[in-house]
Automatic annotation (TrEMBL):
Keywords: Membrane, Transmembrane, Transmembrane helix, Transport. It is found in: Membrane. The keyword Chloroplast does not apply. It comes from Cytobacillus purgationiresistens. This is NSS family neurotransmitter:Na+ symporter.
Length: 449
């Protein structure tokens, strides 16, 4: 068993929610919604989060809590003398690559927070586009900001579960909700704000295409932080007496809630000031600063938004670093701090090329993509779907059904029906859906279109 555990179920829920709520909910979901049909896309995203993401989240919880060990050791204990523990290694490798370029985006957020403090501004979307390009094309600034983001991440993880990740998550997650509520109130009081709400929440299924359906599947899948065994490691620190069902439901609800809050904070302001919701990835760093620039106390609200975005990005980064550190320390407290710094510095070095891919290394491409985009594609479109597929097969075909049942329902007969549905989804539906998402994101389905 681990030496370190969550001090409470609340701490576990907030840390797990923090892992899930990050770039996917706040940065990626709004711009994908803007380019994929608005409310109809949100409806599909909610549907798939409940019937695909939720079962996978529970599956990772079961693996970790049943063994009380980090990812690699957990698979070894359940299936000894087999190759299934390579799912754990795959998760560790994926987390390393993911954090290496994720920290670059975290660095961009830190740069923009610095702009907010120093009062640096631009005019209109074209001005902020120039500011963004200037920010990412500065090699010194990009690497320094990436390093600062990782420094904060390492410092927290090095403190351990209770004194590090849990303690910070208990502060950051409530702050995230509070800041969002403030921003939403301001956004909804703007002229023409209801047009943005209508676009975001009112479904128009005529705009749905096969591609947007698959995007919704992929978004629900990635937004819950499943597929790289992060939740296996997190749940291994949970006491045996605690229910798994309630934390899983709480994490899913919090993630969906934050996703909705992000849209309600962004789209009313975008529509109010006449910008296009289809702005793409630049919505956060280019359009939003221009939007907030035109409203009363806009600089204050932009700073608050970037602060909560940094909170969400950091809590996700904690989980990525934790799975790597835990795999080395085997969950023991001895040597955690040193290992955290060694691993973190290694990830920083690995991420430097991604940080420089918009400046001195911009001419280097891999299959036509920049270093940053190649790392993103490898993780998002190949490693995470493949890892989740293996986890779904492992849980439903390799683990004993009686063990799964005892871990999930804990002698609660009222949950028998829930277990039956979950087991059916994991055994038959989830693997097929993941295969569909994997093939499409890899571009293979296009060969048959």
């Amino acid at each position: 068993m681990q030496n370190d555990q969550w001090s409470s179920k609340v701490g576990f829920i907030l840390a797990s929610a923090g892992s899930a709520i990050g770039l996917g909910a706040i940065w990626k979901l709004p711009y994908i919604t803007g380019t994929s049909g608005g409310g109809a896309f949100i409806f599909l995203f909610l549907l798939f989060s409940l019937f695909i993401g939720f079962p996978l989240l529970l599956a990772e919880f079961v693996i970790g809590r049943s063994t009380g060990k980090e990812a690699i050791s957990a698979y070894k204990e359940i299936a000894p003398k087999t190759k299934w523990h390579w799912i754990g290694y795959l998760g560790v490798i994926t987390a390393v690559i993911l954090l290496s370029f994720y920290s670059v985006i975290g660095g961009w957020v830190i740069q923009y927070l610095f702009y907010g403090i120093t009062g640096l501004t631009a005019e209109g979307t074209s001005g902020y586009e120039g500011l963004f390009n200037q920010s990412v094309s500065s090699p010194i600034a990009s690497v320094a900001a990436q390093g600062l983001f990782l420094f904060i991440t390492i410092a927290v993880v090095a403190k351990g579960i209770q004194q590090g990740i849990e303690k910070v998550s208990k502060i950051m997650m409530p702050a995230l909700f509070i800041l969002f509520i403030i921003l939403i109130i301001r956004s909804l009081t703007l002229d023409n704000a209801m047009e943005g709400v209508k676009f975001f929440l009112q479904p128009d299924f005529s705009k749905i295409t096969s591609e947007s359906v698959l995007y919704a599947l992929g978004q629900s899948f990635f937004s819950l932080s499943v597929g790289i065994s992060v939740m296996v490691t997190y749940s291994s620190y949970l006491a045996k007496k605690e229910s798994l069902m309630q934390p899983a439901i709480s994490v899913v609800i919090m993630n969906l809630f934050i996703s909705i809050l992000a849209g309600l904070a962004i789209f009313p302001a975008v529509f109010s000031l006449g910008y296009q919701p289809e702005a793409g990835p630049g919505l956060l760093f280019i359009v939003l600063p221009a939007v907030f620039d035109q409203i009363i106390f806009g600089k204050v609200f932009l700073f608050l938004f970037l602060a909560l975005f940094l909170f969400a990005t950091l809590t996700s980064a904690f989980s990525m670093l934790e799975i790597v550190v835990a795999s080395v320390t085997k969950g023991k407290s001895n040597g955690r701090a040193l290992i955290s710094w060694i691993v973190g510095i290694g990830i920083f070095a690995l991420g430097v090329p991604s940080a420089l891919s918009y400046s001195v290394l911009s001419d280097i491409t891999i299959f036509g993509k920049s270093i940053f985009d190649s790392a993103d594609f490898l993780v998002s479109n190949i490693l995470m779907p493949f890892g989740a597929l293996l986890i779904s097969i492992f849980v439903s075909y390799k683990m004993k059904k009686d063990l799964l049942k005892s871990e999930l329902i804990m002698d609660s007969k009222s949950l028998n029906g829930v277990f039956t549905v979950w087991y059916f989804l994991m055994r038959y539906i989830v693997p097929l859906v993941i295969i569909a998402v994997f093939l499409d994101s890899s571009g293979l389905l296009k060969l048959f279109k």
